Amino acid sequence: MAQRVRDLMAANPIEMDARTTVHEAARRMRDADIGDVLVMENGTLCGIVTDRDIVIRGLADREDLTGCTLGDVCSKQLVSVGPDEDADAAIMRMREKAIRRIAVVEDGRPAGMLSIGDAAVEKDPRSALADISAAPANA
Q: How far apart, in Å, are the Cα atoms of 21 and each of 32, 82, 88?
């Protein structure tokens, strides 16, 4: 039987409002040991912010991050999958779009997050990416 996205995804993604400061989001990501948060606006998923977005669209573009919000730095070209979609098809979509993380949405609400690292751990556990993804976080 084919693997489904729900078999690989990290459930219960962290959602934060688009008006949340980048500083607050970075702290939350650090504390939860994650590299992304889903961005919500008026109760609707509107984007994703990764640690890389914070650096590239936040720090690199601004001298001062005071007042910089997730809405200012998030990727708004959100690509998503459903939890019951075929995992290989979701991974192929990630490859086609050149993205490392994809939001899992069910009934219009965030249900999880699938990262290329999560997929590697399950589908190719002997790969270098799987080894890196399964390693404990750097302190």
A: 17, 29, 35
